[in-house]
Write a structure and sequence with these properties.
By secondary structure, this protein is α+β, with helices and mostly antiparallel strands. It has 7 helices and 15 strands. The mean pLDDT is 89.
Length: 308
């Protein structure tokens, strides 16, 4: 059965092309959104529209989404996933490499949600069926700290905190070369890559994206950065660092040098969610969690240090 969604367009989408607005609102690729419009599956304030029409905030959009099999959460132990903190409202985990945050089409590997279920942890039922309790995500190839909501009230409060940018997310990132200046801010909009749908890119008219970085240590061929995200776009650090010609070491998707990755025994991007700070969703007390780089990333640092 098709899924019919009717809702007002947020003010933040005001002035965008309809296909762009639909892609952002429903998490679709721009091509998929344009196909829906051209198939007559989208109406705006009850009338037919074209994909290039500009939208305004508050307009009522109705979209008929094709039926799709929802990926099921498979209860499966996740070796190496460590619970850093847990109470009645939240659980903070240190996610290992090769683990997705939640099930998704095309992913058959382990997930944080499945691992928590296998270990007997209860999580919130809020959110889409395949990502219940998930308030933020890490890429499969990125390790580090994630918070998951256990109570419904915590889910709502944490989602609001992320939306208001009240959560401090810090990453350790090893990037090629030496960024100049050694500390700075990258303020560049991100959207899907115009020709490669599996990638993201800095795109005019994309979603506002802000990344702050500071060099912690400079090696001969690379620099270790402390990175703070002001926004949380998909692949944000990877896209922004590639955009200033300093991709994360090992990130071949975004132009990293494969010879350097091989020299450092890296099989994924060097990126680790190292610190997570936020107010507890129930009582507001400040919480801060830290995580050191896992063994494979530390090994690469040791090799770099030996070369310097």
């Amino acid at each position: 059965m098709n899924d019919v969604r009717t809702l007002p367009l947020p003010d933040g989408l005001d002035g965008l092309r309809l296909d762009v607005a639909i892609s952002r609102l429903f998490g679709l690729s721009r091509t998929a959104a344009a196909d829906l419009v051209e198939a007559g599956s989208v109406t705006l304030d009850g009338r037919g529209v074209t994909k290039s029409e500009r939208v305004h905030g508050g307009a009522m959009v109705e979209v008929v989404l094709p039926a799709a099999d929802e990926p099921a959460t498979i209860s499966e132990p996740v070796p190496g996933m460590r619970v850093v903190y847990e109470d009645d409202d939240i659980i903070v985990v240190d996610k290992p490499v090769g683990v997705a945050a939640h099930p998704s089409p095309g992913w058959s590997g382990p997930t944080v949600i499945g691992g928590l279920a296998a270990a007997g942890h209860r999580i919130a039922t809020s959110g889409a069926a395949e990502r219940q309790g998930v308030v933020h995500r890490l890429d499969v190839g990125t390790t580090g700290l994630m918070v998951v909501a256990k109570s419904e009230s915590a889910y709502t409060a944490l989602k609001d905190a992320f939306r208001r940018r009240e959560v401090d997310k810090r990453y350790a990132a090893l990037v090629q070369g030496h960024p100049d200046p050694t500390r700075g801010t990258i303020d560049a909009p991100i959207d899907r890559h115009p020709t490669h749908d599996y990638k993201w890119a800095v795109v005019a008219g994309g979603r506002a994206s802000v990344t702050h970085y500071e060099t912690v240590e400079a090696f001969r061929a690379a620099s270790l950065l402390d990175v703070r995200l002001e926004t949380g776009r998909t692949h944000q650090i990877r896209v922004h660092m590639a955009a200033i010609h300093h991709p994360c070491v090992g990130d071949l998707t975004y132009g990293a040098d494969p010879t350097l990755a091989a020299r450092l025994d890296l099989t994924r991007q060097w990126l680790h969610a190292s610190r997570l700070s936020f107010a507890h969703p129930r009582d507001g007390r400040p919480l801060e969690f830290t995580s050191p780089p896992p063994a494979d990333l530390q090994h690469s640092l040791d090799l770099l240090a030996a070369e310097s």
